[in-house]
Give the backbone structure.
Amino acid sequence: MKKEKQKDREDRQICIVFATALLACALLTGCGAAKEDNLSQGIALVEQMDYEGALTCFEAAALNKEDMRQVYRGQGLAYMGMTDYENAAASFEKALGQSSPRPDAMDYDINYYLATAYYRNGQVDKAIHVYQAITDLKPGEKTAWYLKGTMELEQGSTDAAKADFDKAVEAAPNDYDIRIDIFCLFYHITDSAGRNNIQFRNDHM
């Protein structure tokens, strides 16, 4: 009888220690322990602009071996929110490393974020390369053509920008908003061949 009581006490002590450990883990991470909970909480914290809290959740998600592509994407978004574009780009690269050979919608989404991170980090050539990769796979992706064109224009590559904008308009012939955006971009560009800019605007209006 004494042995049974002693065993009951030991079992209760073990349960208390285990419960305390779980509570400590929850307090340290601020995230759930169940699979996928850390990931969803991290994404929610990004939306709430609690980027440091989000990173903590994504780290816990990685330990739980949750959806690693989404974990790295979430980390990238958190780093973007913290204006840490170098780490953001590294995270998006890791996310793409988790992709299958056939790109899906999330892969394109991540690539757009990667290009933005590169651009914000001063790596314009890399950003252009990402947009080129997108258009190679999806020639009708007007947004990629347009953004690539804006960066070409920023670098002074007017002819390359014009070619990109032509592709954007060709991909969306009824999108007059993009035509207006292109017009406004060229309106503010002045160079020694200003007539070329005027001709470009007339071609697209």
In short: Residues 2-7, 10-29, 195-205 have pLDDT under 50 and may be disordered.
